[in-house]
Design brief:
By secondary structure, the protein is of the alpha+beta class. It contains 9 helices and 4 strands.
Length: about 210
């Protein structure tokens, strides 16, 4: 497999974790977002949206991190990243989508670039935007996890799932922007547990070949 990735991309980070959890070897092909390499013709031929990640496997290219992780789950079912019970699978998918579909889009690089340029924000203005939406998003996520009473060591009991693959990169980004994370003890407890696992450690940004 080949993974088109960028070391700081949350979406690519998710897929790296999933690949590592399943013990799948892959070739990392870095695509620099700050250098706009994702907009080059040769990359658009791989992924017409010009986004990362993209996973190449068996001559096919798979895009969108949640879809890619579901593909890995279906083609490499062990160890599973989804629970066996349908209701529990829905819970894990909901957590993953809260992060990937609700929290992350407001804070990814292209959104931050747009608000900076469109509204003439300085660095502190961009940081305020980021921290506001992180605080709102993580507060809702914390409440959902606490209310569901389904967490154990990880988001779902003691099984690493797609939810953990999404949660850890989002916390990494929040830490990078110096967000206040003390109000989210359950999220941070799960994060700490995940970061004791080799699959997560190896996937983190600083461990990537394009880390700068």
């Amino acid at each position: 497999m080949k993974l088109y990735t960028f070391f700081r991309s949350s979406a690519a980070f998710r897929v790296r974790i999933a690949l590592n959890c399943k013990g799948i070897a892959y070739e990392a092909l870095p695509v620099s977002l700050p250098k706009n390499e994702h907009k080059l013709t040769q990359y658009l031929a791989v992924h017409p949206q010009g986004l990362v990640p993209a996973l190449e496997d068996g001559g096919n290219v798979y895009v969108q991190s949640l879809a890619v992780m579901e593909y890995l789950e279906e083609t490499h079912p062990l160890p599973p990243l989804l629970p066996a019970i349908p209701a529990d699978r829905a819970y894990v998918r909901a957590l993953a989508q809260i992060i990937a579909c609700e929290i992350h889009p407001l804070n990814n690089l292209r959104t931050l670039r747009y608000v900076k340029q469109q509204f003439g924000l300085d660095e502190e203005g961009v940081n305020l935007w980021y921290r506001h939406w992180i605080a709102e998003g993580l507060a809702g996520l914390e409440a959902y996890i606490a209310g569901a009473k389904s967490s154990g060591k990880y988001c779902y009991r003691d099984q690493v799932t797609l939810a953990d693959c999404c949660l850890v990169p989002q916390v990494f980004n929040a830490q990078r922007y110096r967000c206040e994370l003390a109000p989210y003890p359950e999220i941070m407890r799960i994060f700490a547990e995940c970061m004791q696992l080799d699959a997560f450690i190896a996937a983190q940004p600083s461990s990537q070949p394009d880390a700068v």
